[in-house]
Amino acid sequence: MKITASAVSLTVADPAASAAFLVDHFGFEQVVAADGFASLAREDAGMSVVFLRTGLASLPADQRDEHAAGLILAFVVDDLEGELARLEGEGVTITMPLTPEPWGERAFQVRDPNRVIVQLVDWNGEVAPEYR
User: Fold this and answer.
1) Would you kindly state where each structural domain of the chain is located, as residue ranges?
2) Which CATH number applies to 7-122?
3) How far is C-alpha 31 from the geometric centre of its chain's CA atoms?
């Protein structure tokens, strides 16, 4: 098997709102859009993000009414504090403050208009001895 591209597809009530959030605040570009569908990309993201409207007939019956939940759309960034300040300056509500973990990860979270969690992460925190 050779993988030529990767994407994560999320079912949400309003794909256009989630797409606009990633375009406006995270620099994604909308590549394809149709009624109930939006595909976004960033050259440096390593994957595409697809939003599908819940209830789409093209989805298998057991998935149609499921909302993207229990997952985190995470992006590792170079300047975590800078991104936090930028998003706050843009009026984005921070739903989890910048939090250091003992294994060296630092992260904060926001939610898009469909409540999809977007987390920005770096690995610049202090690593506790038990994680070395």
Assistant:
1) 7-122
2) 3.10.180.10
3) 16
